[in-house]
Amino acid sequence: MLKVALTGGIASGKTLASEHFATLGVPVIDADQVARELVEPGRPTLAAIVEHFGPTILTTDGTLDRRALRQCIFTDVQVRHALEAILHPAIHQRMLELAETARGPYLIQVIPLLAESDLDWKQDRGLLIDCPETLQRQRLMARDDCSAEQAEAILASQATRGQRQRIANDILVNDSDVETLQQGIEALHMHYLEAGSSQH
């Protein structure tokens, strides 16, 4: 089965893109959703995070306090690396397991940190949802209601646009409207269907 790793910076349009692939009947495995499942109460990954960071990162009902953790990881690089060392291998393992059982014409794996990750995702192609950083910043501030400084810190903590472009086989620039993005996805869909069928 052809495996396409979909990536992009924060607020570049990855979710819009993966949702459109899903409407075309393509199975989608999203690293962010997998991460959410892995840190549900009672899961070993959450226990490992609490063991490392202490119980202050939990809310009163025992769930992970994402906002508190996000504040920590964007202000302290070491904290971010410590969290990634726990989360990334667990996400990687779970996504490979899910890929084994996925059924469809080809598979989309949404991996936001593909450029930053040194793990082997076993993808056949890399698809970058790209957009200019000025637009990314505007969308991020509107979406997460954060300040320009916060948006800047988040962008600075991720791979650069150039780093992402270098690892991509296919690039869709999402700097227009949703319809334009969807048309680009439909063209790629035809391309992936052909590539997928030639693998069999």
Describe the overall structure.
- It is a single chain.
- This protein is α/β, with parallel strands linked by helices and 200 residues long.
- It has 2 domains: 117 residues, P-loop containing nucleotide triphosphate hydrolases (Rossmann fold), CATH 3.40.50; 69 residues, no CATH class.
- It is built from 9 helices and 5 strands.
- It has a 5-stranded parallel sheet, sandwiched between helices.
- The radius of gyration is 17 Å and the shape is globular.
- The model has no long low-confidence stretch (mean pLDDT 93).
Features:
single chain; 200 residues; alpha/beta; Rossmann fold; 2 domains; five-stranded parallel sheet; globular
What's the short version?
The chain has 200 residues and is α/β, with parallel strands linked by helices. It is built from 9 helices and 5 strands; from the N terminus they run βαβααααββαααβα.
**Integer tally of domains:** 2
The total count of strands amounts to 5
Report low-confidence residues grouped into runs of 5 or more. Answer: none
CATH superfamily descriptor of the largest domain: P-loop containing nucleotide triphosphate hydrolases
* Structural class by secondary-structure content: alpha/beta
What is the number of helices?
9
Q: Give me the CATH fold name of the largest domain.
A: Rossmann fold
